[in-house]
Amino acid sequence: MEKYISIIIPSYNKAATIGKCLAAAFSSDYKNFEVIVVDDCSEDNSVEIIKGFPCKLIRLETRSGTSRARNLGARNSSGDIIFFTDADCLLQENTLSIANRMLTATGPDVVIGGTYTKIPYDRKFFSIFQSVFINYSETRKVENPDYIAAHTMLIDAETFRKSGGFPEEFLPIIEDVEFSHRLRRRGYKLLMNPEIQVQHIFDFSFLRSVCNAFRKTAYWCMYSLQNGDLLADSGTASIEFKANAGLFFLSLFLFAFWLVIQKNSLLYPVPVIFLFSAFIGRKLLKAFFEARGALFAGLAFAYYIMIYPVPVGLGTITGMLNFLVKKQLK
């Protein structure tokens, strides 16, 4: 049975990607769907591009954020199933067909998530790193994920209406994590299907990669402290990743201490620490290898365990400080 699917796409200044996003959606092998784009007061020519496609366009008069855009799009939808995605994500030809089969089989009490393709639209090193990293992280716990990301989220329309939607008075990102946690507390099941995929347009340089890591970590830390689950095994904030980052900073501490007292024995554990870190992250290393071969895997994994933890660590400190300041102001 082909249920009517409403694809909801929030968009803000996405002229560079929204055309590709909509072209991909309308190239689906599944035909029983509508597309609703909610433009969050864009200042570029996004609206002109959107008007070139047979979709419903809703324009917000003031900048209101992604959560309100998604909620408004869902309230104006007609589908039995709501499919949330982003304006820089490209549905695959079979994405909606797999989604329909999955949600039809599971019923309205299950929220289903998909993930990114391993290879993103742009083939830059840091973009591939990010896409493989997210694909791997989001599909580790298929039966019981901690959250469903809004870049590929399937939910029964009536279930969404009862839920109250995404939080509109919240942090500027990770609203899908809060929404997922709220649904689970109400008894809904979260389920991940790795076959439901969208291809992301990252266009990541080194600077954009580290800035993204810093920003997401800072907000994630603030939310996790408020939620009391800072050490939870959650998507890209997995126990595995937290252990790898912790081992990096342990090595950094030993090296810094060696610089001060010049005692060579302080450096002896460092190779062992990195070998242990490689052992912990061996499945991610394998994912890098399967995506792009040995050279990419080596470089990507070196970036992951030797550089990526730096913005993550700085983001963690920033998030903690912001949380403590806000707590004191209450």
Describe the fold and architecture.
- The chain has 330 residues and is α/β, with parallel strands linked by helices.
- The protein has 13 helices and 8 strands.
- An 8-stranded mixed beta sheet has the order 3-2-1-4-7-6-8-5, with helices on both faces.
- Strand 2, helix 2 and strand 3 form a beta-alpha-beta unit.
- The longest helix has 23 residues.
- 42% of the residues are buried.
In short:
The protein has about 325 residues and is of the alpha/beta class.
Throw out a few tags for this protein:
330 residues; alpha/beta; Spore Coat Polysaccharide Biosynthesis Protein SpsA, Chain A; 2 domains; 8-stranded mixed β-sheet; 8 strands
Number of domains: 2
C-alpha end-to-end distance: 52 Å
Helix vs. strand class = alpha/beta
How would the global form be characterised?
A: globular
Corresponding CATH superfamily of the largest domain:
Spore Coat Polysaccharide Biosynthesis Protein SpsA, Chain A
CATH topology of the largest domain: Spore Coat Polysaccharide Biosynthesis Protein SpsA, Chain A
Question: What low-confidence regions span 5 or more consecutive residues with pLDDT below 50?
Answer: none
Summarize model confidence as the mean pLDDT.
Answer: 95
Largest sheet: 8 strands, mixed
Order of helices and strands: EHEHEHEEHEHEHHEHHHHHH
Tally of DSSP β-strands: 8
Strand numbers in spatial order across the main sheet: 3-2-1-4-7-6-8-5
Radius of gyration: 21 Å
By DSSP (H or I, 4+ residues per run), the number of helices equals 13
Work out the strand percent. Answer: 5-15%
Proper CATH architecture of the largest domain: Alpha-Beta Complex
- Please identify the top-level CATH class of the largest domain: Alpha Beta
Helical content (DSSP H or I, runs of 4+)? 40-55%
